[in-house]
Each structure stands twice: as C-alpha cells, then as structure tokens.
Design a protein that fits this description.
Umud Fragment, subunit A; ten-stranded mixed beta sheet; 2 domains; 21% helix; single chain
C-alpha cells in the first residue's frame, strides 16, 4: 500500500471520529502552521506528512498513526516520508526541526529516527544552510543533567548535525551511552587516531585512548540555545 493511501485512510477516519469534537481539515492545517487549504491535501494524501509533523497530527486527532508512519519507525511503502525530519513549512523561509528528549527508550536501535519528538524548533532556512550542508537531517535534543556545565545547562537545546560524525575535527558531539544521547567534547590524536572524550563538567570522568569503533557518535553539536533569565 502506498504511503498516500495509508495517510488518507488514517486521517479520514480520525477526522470523522473527531468531528463532534471540532476536528476539521482546517484545524489540522493550523496545527502544522500551514495555510488552511493544505488541510484537504493532507487528508487526501496529496501532501505527505514528514516525521516531525506526524507527532503533531497524532496529538491533534487523538489517534495514533498506522504502524510505520513515524511512531514505530517501520516504513510502509517506498514513498513514505520519514526521510525528511526537517522541512520548510508554515512561514516561508523557515524550517521546523524536531526536538527530542535526551533519554532514549531501551531497545531503540538508531536514535533519533525511531523516537517520537517532543516538539519542534523553528529556524530561518538561510541560517541553517550556513550551519550545515544538508539541513534535512538536523534535529535537536533537550539537555538534562549537569554533565555539560558550564557549556550546557538543563533545559538548553543543542542542534545536532548527524552528517558530521568524524571526530578528526575536534568539537562537541552527541554520543550514545546506554539510554542517553550525551554531549561530550571529543578530540583525536593526529598520530594514533585515538580519541579523548571529556565532559565539560570536570566532576564527570573522561576517557583517553578510545578507538573510533568503540564510540557511537550520533552527530556534531552545531548550535545551542539557552535561557538567560
């Protein structure tokens, strides 16, 4: 079954069930920050939802997407749009980037593709193009804990570029450690190619002479946001 048919069946049924509660195609479009006319196109499967939009539509409709449309990560059909988690919509020239919790549910194979976002961050498209060659894979994580202090504090947001996983150029990277995406400062010895991994907070242990193959690097931190008051 094509993705457009799956989406159409899901949304059509959910809107019918939700009509007594005021659920409409117009409200669906407004939830995504789109022109009201886009609601019909989405309901008909003419405009496929991307990964970050699926979670917002689920919340609006009060109905989970069919298996494979974002919550579970099992693709159904070659044209299912899970490949585009950062996408321009709403105001022209802006991109919504999915935001995830720092913790990863046990058993999640490849974060963040199989995670459900907790929200989106809106960026000017021109700004993102200056930060990354490919803006479509970008995602953000909400920091928890104090391992990143003073560089990162709980509640800060870190923008991650998953296309940059080569630590030959030192910097801060999101790495997977057990059930968390942790931000660590990574440097590489130019001779041995061994890695040194440090937390910004000196109270946390660091590690020397780590082989690249022993480190699960998710992506490089390319931007952060912080509340100042």
């Amino acid at each position: 079954m094509k993705a457009r048919d799956i989406q159409k069946a899901w949304i059509t049924a959910a809107l019918a069930d939700g009509r007594p509660n005021g659920k409409t195609q117009k409200g669906l479009a407004q939830t995504l920050g789109l022109d009201p006319s886009q609601g019909h196109r989405i309901a008909m499967g003419q405009r496929l939802l991307d990964f970050s939009e699926i979670a917002l539509v689920e919340n609006y409709l009060g109905a989970r997407a069919p298996r494979g449309m974002g919550s579970t990560g099992d693709p159904i059909g070659d044209d299912l749009v899970l490949r585009d988690p950062a996408r321009t919509f709403g105001e022209a020239g802006f991109v919504n980037v999915p935001l995830f919790k720092q913790r990863i549910p046990p058993g999640t194979p490849k974060p963040p593709q199989d995670l459900k976002p907790i929200g989106v961050l809106k960026f000017p498209e021109a700004m993102l193009k200056e930060l990354a060659e490919d803006t479509h894979g970008l995602f953000a994580i909400e920091i928890a804990g104090d391992a990143g202090r003073p560089f990162l504090s709980p509640g800060d947001h870190a923008l991650i570029d998953p296309a940059r996983t080569n630590p030959a150029r030192g910097g801060r990277y999101a790495i997977r450690v057990d059930d968390e995406m942790q931000v660590r400062l990574i440097t590489m010895n130019p001779g041995s190619r061994a890695l040194t991994v440090r937390a910004d907070n000196p109270d946390y242990p660091g590690y020397d002479n780590i082989a690249r193959s022993d480190l699960d690097i998710i992506g490089r931190v390319i931007w952060i946001s912080r509340r100042l008051v």
